[in-house]
Queue: 2 jobs
Job 1
Amino acid sequence: MDKFIIHGGRKLKGKVKVSGAKNAALPIMVASLLVDGKVTLRNVPDLRDIASIGEILRVLGMRVERTGATTVELENVDEKRVEAPYELVSTLRASVCTLGPLLAKRGRARVSMPGGCVIGVRPIDLHLKGLRALGARIEIKHGYIEARARRLKGTEIYLGGPYGSSVLGTANVMMAASLAEGETVIENAACEPEIQDLAHFLNRCGARIEGIGRPILVIRGVRKLHGADYRVIPDRIEAGTFLIAGAITRSRITVTNVRARHLAAFLDKMRSCGVEFARKGNSIEVIPPRRPNAVDLITLPYPGYPTDLQAQITAYLACAKGISLITEKIYPDRFMHVAELGRMGANIRKEGSSAIVRGVERLSGAPVMASDLRASAALVLAGLVAQGTTEVGRVYHIDRGYEKIEEKLNALGAKIERVWEKYPVRDAPQ
Ligand code: EPU
């Protein structure tokens, strides 16, 4: 198992390029199940999660091939396969999105229930509600979702849950509705850029989706989708993580291949911290203050502040002037990084679904443990600025969603070593 050894306190400089968006590429790859013909996807990041979804799609009878550094080709070759097994689904929750396309295209699906994960319970009731509304017969049996349908039928579906819209729930239902008979209206649809990207991809393949980026989506079902060549959007979460890397190390770095419009809430919050940004085309230069102001923030569905950048800004605010209040409105328990940041000298108290962050002068390096993807990124950011050496164990979490993060940060002047350790620093608490 790999760990990172981070030598803190170094200034960064130069440019770093953001890769393609993991959370757009994943559902778009799955959407290829709906397509007759070849799909060529560009700007697909080389990540563990992308490899995992490729594996699942192969089991479902697709040819999935990386034909270039960032290009992936997909094609259906055996449409009789309809089962996504537990061993694979348990490695990647996004695989539950195969349900809608399998039902719509192959009339049947047997997909393992994904189960909980470290950031929360993560139910899929909205996915099932939407697919049932389209006419699917769904049963949960022996840990599997068993679903059948002749041709799905368009209808009106309200897809809001206790925490608002659902990203992958919207993806699942929108994909299924693309091949349904008649018109589907999804109300309280997710507006995230990754869902917009999925809708644009489907339209490129011949789907008829309107209202993209708005909470009411109208999908007019078509009989068939055809192959397409499509470029995935840049990863806004990776971009935000690098912008914080510049701010936290007080370094003027430039992040390229960014769509600033996808990061409005994040940039606004960072400006409240005192960070300035110089935008030029699709690049953003960070102009950091000596020490950030404390800010309050609440994570919300897009266009609100993203939960996937909550842990990283918490690491930044750990050294702010004053007290910040950070409230999670998407995953109330997504605070695994709090205790680990505490090991580095941060003063953070969790209070229900909030964290009270009392800024300290400095952090000090310590052995810490990555628990999930974004929490791991927060620990790497803290390690960049902490005095001394930080060891981040179990970095396979970070490899799920950040392409060569240590290489990219080292190219900016950081000093991060990836080393193999036979036994992790310590076991994750049970
Ligand atoms: N929810 C329900 N019922 C459902 C589905 C969701 O109650 O059927 C709840 C969830 O428990 C949560 C909220 O609704 O409280 C929003 O969850 P959502 O469905 O939007 O999350 P997701 O689609 O499972 C995606 C991303 C996550 C990201 C969230 C929120 C992918 C592959 N995953 O998950 O990304 O945090 O949206 O933006 O797109 C990550 O990349 O690190 C990651 C966890």
Job 2
Amino acid sequence: MSLEITVGDSVPDQAVLLGIPVFEGEDFGSRVELLRPPDRVDTSYIEKLGFTAKLNETLVLTMANRIYLLVGLGAREDFSLDTLRRGGAVFGRSLHRISDAALVLPRELAELNGDEEQSSSHPSWQALVQTLSEGMLLAAYSFTSFKSHPEPEMVQRIKVVLEDSVSAEPGLSKARLMATATCRARDWVNEPAASMTPVRFADIAVQVAQEAGLSIEVWDEKRIEEEGLGGLLGVASGSARPPRLIKLVYDPKTDHKTEGAVNTVALVGKGITFDSGGLSLKSQEGMATMKTDMAGAAAVLAAMSVLAELGIQLKVVGILPVTENMPSGTALKPGDVLKMRSGKTVEVLNTDAEGRLILADALALAAEEDPTAIIDLATLTGACVVALGPLVAGLMGNTDWLCERLETAAERAGEPLWRLPLPRQYKSHLLSDIADLKNIGKPGGQAGALVAGLFLEEFIDGKPWAHLDIAGPARSSEVEGVMPKGATGFGARTLLELLSTWSNPEVS
Ligand code: BES
Ligand code: ZN
Ligand code: ZN
């Protein structure tokens, strides 16, 4: 499906379907009649049909030559921009094969309170159109590359009708970039590991860099060894396919002379193109979805692909360690000791805790850039999925201002995350008998997500750093909100929201 959204101040004649957002428990009939006085009909039957305008509920009414689709937004007092994003997704999915539709954004939405994002607490038309359009664009996604008989491609046109369409236009442009980035990440993650190899992912990164005005360096296995990336090399040693280390740089070349400080943000993404567990082999069930284990790298590359178009005024460095994790005669063995980029040694007691080994090297490289902040995204632990479930990412970090900014950005992006602690007391869980650290904590996986976070913290050289464990929301087993089944592209929009509202941190 390719979706063309426009904004305007009247309903076009060719729009055979008209969406009308409505709140729970309000008079829906009068809303319809207001829009189309000549069609005045008895709509008192709406409630008899059981439609109450809860979020995710829709009702189709046909009158004269037009179809009306009432889109439930839930209770008025619970309204937020994310409600509208979800409403947009529900609307988009209800259109099926209708090629021309419109949706009316009533003025009262711009007058509602209860939106955390706006300082004035009223959402702007721009913000309303952005989130609504994001919802529609994100819901229109499908991955059909491997279908013998995909649904024929069709163009769908949706006009968002509102009073102040001129001021809303930038919201639409931003929505397009947010959705483009998210859907790029989804495509890369959905592609099977047989074709999405480390070399292939690096080739994609080169192409993205060219198109998006980024500079790029790709290290092959020889360079990876020369540079002392023992973690990445160790994990890759069981695989027939060579690893890659990708470094991307976005530099807007403006003089960031604000108080003399040049802000550089380093983004690190876990890029395991397939996680079999290695010799500590996963179960059949645990392995089935492990092509998703490069979702962190995909989210970072996808976000970086639109930085220039979004006009981001920061230097952004992306570091992506990419490899398979496979068992073989040359594979890493439990008990092996690796020497990492930072010089620390790690005893590998479980080869399935591989993400932290490749991230350790990538984080050390990121720290060498002397960035203002480092953020990593990784499908790191099953323990985080147990703690927070499939929809919420875990956030850990050593710097409150950074974590708080990420919380705000995630809220805006509609990507839920929850802060988890990094308890100093658990550092001892990572002590090895023979090396500086081991790669797993206590038996039974106690505080597994936190111990993984504490392990990463050993490699950031004291820089401001935050870690997003996206093991749960990187993939969805059902359609939920703006998420499709399969890869979700989680994290790209949070990064973009964060970077587009970045200002110099007040660090003492
Ligand atoms: N890639 C997995 C984590 C994962 C699990 C992601 C489920 C998505 C869904 C990671 O490499 C892993 O296997 N972690 C181990 C760590 C353990 C051995 C300490 C885990 O969580 O079981
Ligand atoms: Zn693993
Ligand atoms: Zn993994």
